């Protein structure tokens, strides 16, 4: 088959899978991080991330094709150290070897919960943004310049990656979802941990001021619903959820602080015609009965767990994947 025929076949098996039809064969999603790809291709990790070019990316992708055997193209995600430099980001930090990490930090104190709950979006723009980005913690003119520099750096890198990725999609007949159908679904408790209070402080808050945490996750719901909207609806589209906090919580706290808004958002998306693709980080086996209450056709990617158990419990309702240790 030529590349167009291969892409049509791959699109058909994804369409069948997401429509509840057992496909001719199950599609394969594989992929490794771009940071690994750069090093596998013999590039310097630190300097390469500041100097992406069409030629560099093609060298990296050509080498990467030695490893990838999947049906979809999975090399496009990359952090942007140039944009982070303009922002003077404290939210991400590059190590000596060039690896960019998301360090543990907190953007506000427990005494500020009431202000956050009253207007979460305003608080994030006016307080969280400047505290996590030195480029915004300055006078209005300098802040505007940093904002513009950040946006332009993001657009430049996105355009380059998009053009080179499209070349490989066409060359190898990779499956891609229709434009405008892919979104990101924020989950209030995860967002509060990742971008506001921090992984270490939020669990303490659930013990010391539980009513504030509950009010905060509810206050974040409108923002999370808004961010999940996509311009085009398709059976091939999806909203992705990279879960973080559930397995750090005991069952009682999961049911109290995490599950209610998570469950509600999944059903809101389904009612709007958008499927959810949920990366269940770590081992969700103890939550398997909760997962049965998610919408029909929810796509669950499990990091760990017994595949047979999940198939027996969820296989008639959900699309299951994963179960291969990421290491």
What are the defining features of this structure?
327 residues, alpha/beta, 2 domains, five-stranded parallel β-sheet, two-stranded antiparallel ribbon, 7 strands, 50% helix, globular
Share in β-strands? 5-15%
Q: Please state the structural category.
A: alpha/beta
Number of strands: 7
- Cα-atom Rg, whole angstroms? 21 Å
Series of secondary-structure elements, N-terminal to C-terminal: HHHHHEEHHHEHHHHEHEHEHE
What can you tell me about this protein's structure?
The longest helix is centred in the middle third of the chain and has 33 residues, at 140-172. This protein has two domains: 1-86 and 141-172, no CATH class; 177-327, no CATH class. Helices cover 50% and strands 9% of the residues. The strands form two sheets. It has a five-stranded parallel beta sheet with strand order 3-4-5-6-7, with helices on one face. The protein is of the alpha/beta class and 327 residues long. The radius of gyration is 21 Å and the shape is globular.
Which helices and strands occur, and which strands form pairs?
Elements: H1 3-18, H2 34-40, H3 45-49, H4 54-64, H5 81-87, E1 93-94, E2 100-101, H6 113-118, H7 120-132, H8 140-172, E3 182-184, H9 188-195, H10 201-208, H11 210-219, H12 221-227, E4 238-242, H13 251-271, E5 276-283, H14 288-291, E6 299-304, H15 307-314, E7 319-322
Parallel strand pairs: 3-4, 4-5, 5-6, 6-7
Antiparallel strand pairs: 1-2
Helix pairs in contact: 4-8, 5-8, 10-11
């Amino acid at each position: 088959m030529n590349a167009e025929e291969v892409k049509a076949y791959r699109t058909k098996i994804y369409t069948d899978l997401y429509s509840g039809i057992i496909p001719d064969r199950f599609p394969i999603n594989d992929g490794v991080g771009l940071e690994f790809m750069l090093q596998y291709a013999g590039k310097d990790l630190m300097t390469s991330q500041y100097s992406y070019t069409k030629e560099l990316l093609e060298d990296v992708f050509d080498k990467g094709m030695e490893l990838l055997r999947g049906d979809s193209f999975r090399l496009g995600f990359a952090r942007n150290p140039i944009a982070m430099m303009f922002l003077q980001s404290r939210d991400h930090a590059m190590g000596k070897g060039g690896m960019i990490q998301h360090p543990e930090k907190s953007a506000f104190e427990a005494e500020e919960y009431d202000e956050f709950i009253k207007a979460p979006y305003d608080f994030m723009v006016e307080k969280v943004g400047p505290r996590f980005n030195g480029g915004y913690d300055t006078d209005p003119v300098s802040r505007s310049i940093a904002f513009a520099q950040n946006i332009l750096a993001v657009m430049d890198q996105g355009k380059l990656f998009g053009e080179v990725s499209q070349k490989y999609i066409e060359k190898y007949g990779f499956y891609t979802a229709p434009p405008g159908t892919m979104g990101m679904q924020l989950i209030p408790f995860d967002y509060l941990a990742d971008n506001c209070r921090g992984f270490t402080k939020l669990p303490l808050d659930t013990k010391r001021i539980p009513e504030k945490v509950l009010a905060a996750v509810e206050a974040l719901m409108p923002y999370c619903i808004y961010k999940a909207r996509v311009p085009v609806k398709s059976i091939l589209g999806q909203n992705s959820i990279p879960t973080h906090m559930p397995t750090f919580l005991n069952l009682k706290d999961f049911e109290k602080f995490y599950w209610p808004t998570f469950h509600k958002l999944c059903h809101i998306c389904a009612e709007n015609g958008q499927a959810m693709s949920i990366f269940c980080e770590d081992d969700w086996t103890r939550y398997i009965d909760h997962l049965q209450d998610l919408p029909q056709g929810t796509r669950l990617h499990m990091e760990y767990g017994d595949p047979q158990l999940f198939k027996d419990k969820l296989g008639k309702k959900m699309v299951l994947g994963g179960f291969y240790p990421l290491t």
